[in-house]
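Sample pair:
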Amino acid sequence: MLKTEDFWATVIGLLTLFGVWMAWQVGSPLAQMVAVNAGGLHWQAWGTLIAFFATKWDAILLQPIVFALFLAIPAIFLNLDLERFLMGFVVLFLLALVTFSISGWARAARFELEPPVVALLLGLMLGNIATVPDWMKPAFRVELYLKTGIVLLGATFPVSLLLSAGPAALAQAAIGTVVTVASIYGLGRWLGLSHGQAAVLGTGAGVCGVSAAMAAGSAVQARRQEIYQAISLVILFSLAWVVVLPQLAVFLGLTPGQGGAWIGSSELADAAGMAAASSFGVMVGHQDVVIKAFTLTKVIGRDVWIGLWAIFWTFTVARDHASGSRPDLAGSAAAHAWWRRVPKFVIGFFLAAGVMSLLTLRLTPVLRHDLLVPLVGLRTWAFTLCFLAIGLSTRIRQLLAVERPVLLVFTAGVAINLAVGYTLSAVVFGGQWAALH
């Protein structure tokens, strides 16, 4: 477990939570200093931006030191070259400063260019125009940044909302993933794809993107090329949906809760979904509600299906190479397989939500807001670093090298997923999502 990003994301997230709590308790400005960024500046003249950096220079010097201290131990346990990791992280941090400066520009804010979206576009541009040096690559820990951000998201998520809206989110996620996976698997087999490739494509589109595709590929012992094609399509559609889904949600007139739930049901990856939800939230003026609905349907609802689908494919598709028969897993073995596959950072999310709910139980809304502001800022930092890493490590030319039947099957499945997600979010559970606040 010490060699998994799930574990370290949970540790970093919980340590950050307690650190912010302790700083708030003693009245220290340290948490606010580490969380500060220029993303909400709305500057129109260069002088405003320059003045921001001139007045916040001490915080900006402090930030990379604190971030590096939190990340150094995980980097060691993840067998990364620590020197290269820290060097690459410094560059990533400087690019994040550029990202926040761009997103804080008044004209950028007019087009809802939130920091994660700007980070993705900036990373893609730099990564596909210039050659990224090898010494930077150890710092591109997409999963670590993303999962840390999600654990921090849990710290700002009320447990009461999990209890009230959780059942609908779980039901919506279950219906959506079963319909999407079954559609892609059936269409793929009809067009001649192998059982393994159809299973990998379906799981990648219906559950949680890259992680789900890799888990399914491992379960069915798919060929490396089959897994790579699924991952390429997941990344390609996820990046497109960051821009398309918020615009579609506005065009269709969805409420903040409905739009967030639809994005959570339709996006193929957590990171891209968070960016799309954040963008739509800014468009409709209720970012907090949109992120809550997205988190309920995607992180809590869909992500837990990674382990369930891995077990299902093991029982139905995978075969033992020696005997040619399907594995016969006992109940305890199936439970162990699910536990091994399920994303542990979701548990970190629940832990953070529970701990923060207890710590803020008797606080007034104003005091609770003051406590949570640094956690929201640090969460934005985590997602921004994540998207910079995604953009810098993504090669668009490689994503387009996919066989036509595979592209056809995946595209049809994604279209079905969009339709099913919209029906569930706006019609079946529309009233409940519309009432979310």
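The chain has one domain: 5-434.
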